[in-house]
Design a protein that fits this description.
This protein is about 45% helix and about 10% strand. The chain is an alpha+beta fold and about 775 residues long.
């Protein structure tokens, strides 16, 4: 006997016909098609992080796969980076991985279409959840539209990783519900795979989604009595979900935790997270899209996160953009909450989810967030509780859809006290927002937003009244859903917070431009050096609009980049912080006092690219002797004197304490041609320590025979015992063999790799093997605090 309970609203609604199902799917597909077309026709693209970071990662993955290599190590980002451990590398996103394999040089528009397709998938899954609850097709379309076009989804499109994690949530909820209700091995397997892929996003949305799925399963258990029977009947299926999920998730998650332990931000301070809280007054934006001028020029935005607001925070207009439309707000507040539809079977979970996600998003504005931050494992890894608005929007979508369905079936009795309370709160909040307008121009923008919302409100209320007439229900509901879609599309698509002219990212376009001219010079210089057996690095300081990480797309080994996660040791030694690509914010620590410093020479920096001539760069930037390769504006490219070789031999070594050196801010002087600095903890067997006597170049030679993403093969001949130094970053997972025999990997010259050689001819191969049992065991020890 099955203990499955119906999850449909009262009224015994009929299942959808095949025609209705196809119609709903076609409408959701149209959301995607029209949005992609709007971006194409307006010659705009999803901006900022979507291009500077994620598009470059996508192109790197495609480049690696086209070369027949797994994109595990990225030599084009911060002088070397473990992409396999980076949550934002797109390496473990099946959709982007397949797309990069099929179209490794996909255009910006194609990349945008792939990103938006995830939202279409989320819309389809949301509609399926609605169908399982017996909602009318119009209600399902409304819910799907809110999921697709809702404020956080559109406002945060630049954060591709967060959007993808958000899109997986309704899919996972659908699969979990089907697995639990039907006690199905097939759906259990599907859920395990989907949930693991979602969790592989390894961002805050993925983390919160996991908590949502656990809460959903517990709610399902609580509504099926007795609990022991529920566990007995569904335990095997839950076990399968866990086994499948763990098998997919365990290794990538372990590698990410290993990277976090060596990164610049293993934990986040409470105050840092508190600054990422959602100001409560942003909730006005649910129904008034442009109340704070967030859809206007940057100087017209006066909402939270600006000096015009009394509370300091680190949010911005895209984080604070919550618009779901006046139609959705009326349905959710009036029928869902005041009318009680949100508390009926099938929607109670989403009502609770909406409340919990709102409290979490408000962060430090409620006392509950500190308890969550300190007591719930994982919360302290993330710095912006406002990200929970993604989940809030899904809850609103389901409640709005259920409320429209309820209004179609019956005349819902509304609690007028509750409704009056909502209206009063909205009025007070709106009044306060208007009072914050710093000028008549700002006030005019806010009043226009309220006027637009009021017009939609009047029309929506009239359509809601038409639902009372049985013969007009279908037509009125269709019109109401269409009104909501039009409102969302008008305010939320191709706006200043999610669209920018493609011409801004000229480095990714084939048309002639100063960007393409600069790129040609960099590639010609780099490729010429490679042909001569040398591998210099490039520092790109100042140029933006995709340039920060363009090395990934075009195969340029850059010393900087844009990524919130960085290798802490490298950042401390070189000053390569999150904002280091901005000249006025690029620090030059004592260990890296400009481009002719010892460490800069070891890194092999021979090319620099600025957005200003050297004479106009900040005074903190040392002025070395440079050869001009490109004279701007807008870009200036210079060649430095020849730096240290990428690979060399040293016949003597000096033992050092790397941590002490970085703390003191001074790398001890040594003879690069004959000596090497070796970490005191690394064993050296035959090479003698250095003395104060002047050395002579090490007798022998070394050449790079094959340089790939995850391996470097060298050939060396030495007359004496020596240490081969490869000036590529040392990181867990790298191994080295000499003549096919595994040898200890040494930390050389503070940041780099080395291996000891005996006299003679040798073939040396460095390989990045993050999935080896040895590295996984080391990663586990690191995570447990035993590194």
């Amino acid at each position: 006997m099955s203990d499955t309970k119906t999850d449909r609203l009262p009224g015994n609604p009929r299942p959808w016909t095949r025609r209705e199902t196809l119609a709903v799917a076609a409408v959701i597909l149209a959301f995607w098609g029209v949005t992609v077309a709007a971006y194409s026709l307006e010659a705009v693209t999803i901006p900022w992080d979507a291009k500077s970071q994620f598009y470059n990662f996508f192109r790197f993955v495609g480049r690696a796969l086209a070369q027949g290599e797994p994109p595990l190590w990225n030599p084009y980002h911060f002088s070397g980076f473990p992409s396999v451990a980076d949550p934002q590398s797109l390496l473990f996103s099946p959709t982007f991985l397949i797309a990069a394999w099929l179209a490794p040089k996909a255009s910006m528009g194609s990349f945008d279409a792939i990103a938006l397709a995830h939202l279409a998938g989320a819309g389809v899954a949301t509609a399926a959840l609605c169908a399982r609850r017996g909602f009318a097709p119009q209600a399902a379309v409304l819910a799907a539209a809110i999921v697709f076009f809702g404020g956080p989804a559109m406002g945060r499109l630049q954060h591709i990783g967060l959007v993808v994690s958000y899109a997986w949530l309704p899919v996972c909820l659908l699969f979990l519900e089907l697995a639990l209700d039907r006690r199905s091995w097939r759906w259990s397997l599907a859920f395990g795979c989907a949930a693991a892929v979602m969790a592989l996003g390894r961002d805050q949305i993925a983390f919160l989604n996991c908590l949502v799925l656990v809460a959903f399963a517990l709610t399902h258990a609580a509504t099926h009595r007795p609990l022991a029977g529920w566990l007995r009947m569904r335990g095997p299926y839950i076990l399968l979900m866990g086994i499948v999920g763990a098998a997919i998730l365990a290794v990538p998650l372990l590698l990410t935790l290993q990277f976090a332990a060596f990164s610049n931000r293993p934990v986040v301070a409470f105050q840092t997270a508190a600054y990422g809280s959602l100001d409560p007054f942003n909730l006005i934006g649910l129904f008034a899209a442009d109340i704070f001028g967030g859809l206007q020029r940057t100087d017209l935005y006066f909402g939270p996160g600006t000096p015009h607001w009394p509370n300091f925070d680190w949010t911005d207009r895209s984080v604070n953009f919550l618009h779901v439309g006046m139609v959705a707000t009326l349905l959710t507040a009036g029928i869902g909450l005041a009318g009680g539809a949100a508390f009926r079977p099938g929607l109670r979970f989403f009502a609770g989810l909406g409340a919990a996600s709102l409290v979490y998003a408000l962060g430090a504005h409620t006392p509950l967030f500190r308890f969550a931050f300190e007591l719930i494992p994982g919360v302290s890894l993330y710095r912006r509780p406002a990200d929970a608005t993604f989940i809030l929007i899904l809850a609103i979508a389901m409640i709005a859809g259920g409320s429209l369905d309820a209004a179609m079936r019956e005349r819902v009795r509304v609690n007028r006290i509750a409704l009056a309370t909502f209206a009063a709160l909205a009025a007070v909040g709106t009044g306060f927002a208007l009072a914050r307008a710093p000028s008549p121009a700002h006030l005019a923008v806010a009043l226009a937003a309220l006027g637009s919302g009021a017009a939609v409100c009047i029309l929506a209320l009239w359509l809601l009244r038409q639902l009372r007439a049985p013969e007009r229900v279908a037509l009125a509901a269709t019109a109401l859903a269409a009104l909501a879609i039009a409102e969302l599309g008008f305010h939320n698509v191709t706006t200043p917070i999610n669209a920018e002219a493609k011409a801004v990212y000229a480095v990714f376009r084939d048309e002639p431009s100063p960007d393409r001219a600069a790129l040609s010079i960099l590639l010609a210089a780099s490729n010429g050096d490679h042909a001569a057996g040398r591998r210099p690095r490039v520092e790109i300081l100042g140029p933006e609009n995709g340039w920060q990480n363009a090395g990934m797309t075009y195969g340029i080994e850059a010393t900087l980049g844009y990524n919130p996660l960085r290798f802490a040791l490298y950042e401390r030694a070189t000053g390569a912080a999150e904002t280091a690509h901005e000249p006025r914010l690029r620090p030059f620590p004592q260990t890296f006092r400009g481009y002719r410093s010892l460490l800069a020479r070891l890194l092999g920096i021979e090319l620099v690219m600025f957005d200003k001539p050297l004479g106009e760069m900040p005074a903190s930037l040392p002025r070395p002797r440079l050869e001009t390769l490109m004279q701007g504006p807008p870009y200036w490219i210079y060649r430095l004197p020849r730096a240290a070789p990428r690979a060399l031999l040293a016949a003597r070594y000096r033992a050092i304490d790397v941590e002490a050196i970085l703390s003191a801010g001074e790398i001890p002087a040594f003879d690069i041609e004959s000596e090497v600095l070796i970490s005191r903890s690394d064993p050296v067997e035959a090479v003698p320590p250095a003395t104060d006597d002047p050395g002579r170049p090490t007798p022998g030679r070394v050449a790079i025979a094959d340089y790939r993403l995850n391996s470097v093969r060298l050939v060396a001949e030495t007359e004496v015992a020596s240490i081969l130094v490869l000036h590529d970053l040392d990181y867990p997972g790298w191994e080295v063999t000499v003549n096919g025999q595994r040898r200890p990997l040494l930390r050389a010259n503070v940041l780099f790799r080395g291996v000891e050689l005996t006299p003679g001819r040798h073939e040396i191969v460095f390989r990045f093997r993050p999935f080896s049992a040895e590295n996984l065991w080391a990663a586990l020890a690191t995570v447990r605090g035993k590194r």
